[in-house]
TrEMBL record:
The lineage of its organism: Bacteria, Bacillati, Actinomycetota, Actinomycetes, Kitasatosporales. Keywords: Iron, Iron-sulfur, Metal-binding, S-adenosyl-L-methionine. Residues 50-289 form the Radical SAM core domain. This is Heme chaperone HemW. The keyword Signal does not apply. Pfam families: Radical_SAM. InterPro entries: Aldolase_TIM, Coproporphyrinogen-III_oxidase, Elp3/MiaA/NifB-like_rSAM, rSAM, rSAM_sf. Signal peptide: none annotated. Coiled coil: none annotated. SMART domains: Elp3.
Length: 485
C-alpha cells in the first residue's frame, strides 16, 4: 500500500515494533569520510551560522566495562586496568582542550558521561575531567542543567563512597541499567553480577546519598519473560521509586553478541505492546508523567535533559573513543568505529598527537535536518521552526505523513503550526518516526544491516549453527511476516 494513512494503520494493526529511534540518521547510515574532507573548526562554525542555536550538549564516552551484556552493540571493551584508565582520562582531557574554541562559542547546557560503565573510573579521574571542563569553560556549573553518568548497580555497591564523591563534584543524575528485576532474566541476558539484592542496594545507596535524579530502565522481550514476570518487575520498580524510568522493547541488532552467535531466543511480537500498556498504567498511577515514548519522570525532578535538548535540535559534541557528534552539517565519529583494545590504544595515541579527525559520518542536507526534527521531536514540535530550514519545500512529502498520523490518532494539532503526540502516538511513536525517514537513509540503513546479516550467516554456517535473522526495519519485519504467513 502506498497511502501513508493505510501504511501506518497496517503497521499498528500488525503490532510492528521498529527499533527505538534515538538518533537520526542512525549510525547504520554513516560511511567513511575522505581524509581531510572535514575540518572540525570549520564544520562547527558552519553549524553555528547555518542551522543551530548557540547552545551545546557535551557527551564524554568511557568505553570500559567489567562484562559485556549479550544484547549490547555499544562501543565497549572489557577492562579494569587502572593504568589504562589513567591514560584514557588523559587522552579525553586532551581532546576536551582541543575543542575549547568549539565549546566556548556556545552556552554549555548538559554534560553526560556515558559508556560503557564510567562509574568504574576512580573519583580522581572525574576530578580531572571536571577540572579540564572548568579550564576551558570556567562557569560551566552555572550554565549546565544536568551532569549525568552511567553506572551499573554493582559498580555503585562496590564503591559507595566514590559515588558520594561524584555527587559532591556536582553529579545531578545517574543512569543505572537494571533491565529486569527477575533473576533468571538478568542471568540469561549476561548480567549475573547484578542480581535483585545488588539492584535494591544500589538504588538505596543512590537515594540515601541524595542524588537529585536516579534514572533506571526495564526491557520488554527478554528470553523467558512472561506477562507475570514483566508485571513483577514493573510493580517492584515503581515501589522502589526512582525519579526516572525508561521501558524499552528489546532489540538485538546484528552486531550484538546474541545475534552473531544465534544463541539467544527473545520475544519481539505484537503482544509486547500489552506490556507497554501495563507499565504506562502503573507508572502514571504512581505519579510519573510521560516525557517520551520510552521514558517516565517524576515531575520537577526526573527526566533526561540532554536527550530532550538533542531531540530539539541542540547540537551534541561527542568526545572519547566511539563517541558520535550531532551537528546541523555533519553527524560524525572520529577514530575507530569498531570496539577493541587496540582501537582504544590508537585513540589514546591520536588524542595525544592532536590528530583525531572525523573518519565516518553522514552529511546533512536541509531536507535531512527537517526530517531529523520530525523523527526525533514529534512529542511537541512547532512546525514553524522548520520553515527557516526548508520545510515549505518538502510539504508534498511531509504533509501526507502528518495527515496520516492525525487520521490514525497519533498526533494533536495544537494551534496553527504545533503538533503533539497523543497517548496513542507515544505508544506507536517509532512507527511514526520511521515514516519520516528519507529514501536515502532507508537505503543506507538496509545496506548496512544486510551486510551484517550476510556476515553472521557465513559465520553461523561455518559453525554449523542455524541462522536467525532478527530484522531491523519496519519493512524487513513486514517481509518476514509475509514469509511466515
Amino acid at each position: 500500500m502506498s497511502n501513508p494513512t493505510d501504511q501506518i494503520a497496517d503497521c499498528i494493526a500488525q503490532g510492528v515494533i521498529p527499533p527505538y529511534n534515538y538518533s537520526y540518521p542512525p549510525r547504520s547510515t554513516y560511511r567513511p569520510l575522505a581524509p581531510g574532507q572535514w575540518d572540525l573548526k570549520e564544520l562547527w562554525a558552519q553549524d553555528l551560522t547555518k542551522y543551530q542555536v548557540p547552545e551545546l550538549n557535551l557527551y564524554l564516552h568511557v568505553p570500559f566495562c567489567r562484562y559485556k551484556c549479550g544484547f549490547c552493540n555499544l562501543y565497549t571493551v572489557i577492562s579494569t586496568d587502572q593504568d589504562l584508565y589513567d591514560a584514557y582520562t588523559d587522552a579525553l582531557c586532551t581532546q576536551i582542550r582541543d575543542h575549547a574554541e568549539i565549546i566556548q562559542a556556545r552556552r554549555l547546557r548538559t554534560v553526560y558521561i556515558g559508556g560503557g560503565t564510567p562509574a568504574l573510573l576512580s573519583l580522581r579521574h572525574f576530578e580531572q575531567i571536571f577540572a579540564t571542563i572548568a579550564e576551558v569553560y570556567p562557569n560551566w556549573r552555572s550554565t549546565v542543567e544536568e551532569v549525568a553518568v552511567e553506572a551499573t548497580p554493582d559498580s555503585i555497591v562496590a564503591d559507595p563512597d566514590g559515588f558520594e564523591g561524584l555527587i559532591r563534584l556536582g553529579l545531578t543524575r545517574a543512569n543505572i541499567g537494571i533491565q529486569s528485576l527477575v533473576p533468571q532474566e538478568i542471568r540469561e541476558a549476561g548480567r549475573g553480577q547484578a542480581g535483585q539484592d545488588v539492584i535494591r542496594e544500589a538504588i538505596r545507596i543512590v537515594q540515601d546519598k541524595g542524588l537529585p535524579d536516579l534514572s533506571t530502565d526495564l526491557i520488554m522481550g527478554f528470553a523467558g519473560q512472561t506477562d507475570e514476570s514483566w508485571r513483577h518487575s514493573v510493580d517492584e520498580l515503581a515501589a522502589l521509586a526512582p525519579t526516572t524510568i525508561s521501558t524499552y522493547f528489546l532489540t538485538v541488532r546484528p552486531d550484538a553478541w546474541f545475534s552473531r552467535t544465534g544463541a539467544y531466543q527473545y520475544m519481539w511480537k505484537p503482544e509486547l505492546y500489552d506490556r507497554y500498556d501495563y507499565a504506562r498504567e502503573v507508572f502514571t498511577e504512581h505519579g510519573y508523567v510521560q516525557e517520551g515514548s520510552v521514558r517516565y519522570k517524576t515531575p520537577g525532578r526526573g527526566g533526561y535533559v540532554q536527550k530532550v535538548l538533542t531531540f530539539h535540535g541542540v547540537p551534541l559534541l561527542g568526545l572519547g573513543v566511539g563517541a558520535r557528534s550531532y551537528t546541523g552539517v555533519l553527524d560524525y565519529m572520529t577514530g575507530s568505529v569498531k570496539p577493541s583494545m587496540s582501537e582504544v590504544a590508537d585513540y589514546i595515541t591520536q588524542a595525544r598527537n592532536h590528530s583525531l579527525v572525523p573518519t565516518t559520518g553522514f552529511a546533512l542536507t536541509p531536507e535531512e535536518i527537517v526530517r531529523k526534527r520530525l523523527v526525533l521531536d514529534s512529542f511537541d514540535l512547532d512546525l514553524g521552526e522548520l520553515d527557516a530550514i526548508g520545510l515549505a519545500g518538502l510539504r508534498d512529502r511531509i504533509d501526507p505523513v502528518l495527515e496520516a498520523a492525525e487520521a490514525n490518532g497519533l498526533i494533536h494539532r495544537v494551534g496553527p503550526r504545533r503538533i503533539q503526540l497523543t497517548p496513542k502516538g507515544f505508544k506507536y511513536r517509532d512507527i511514526l518516526s520511521w515514516s519520516f525517514f528519507s529514501d536515502r537513509v532507508i537505503e543506507l540503513d538496509r545496506e548496512h544491516y544486510e551486510s551484517l546479516h550476510d556476515r553472521n550467516s557465513r559465520a553461523k554456517k561455518n559453525m554449523g549453527t542455524p541462522v536467525r535473522i532478527t530484522g531491523v526495519t519496519t519493512q524487513e519485519q513486514n517481509e518476514q511476516r509475509e514469509k511466515s504467513a
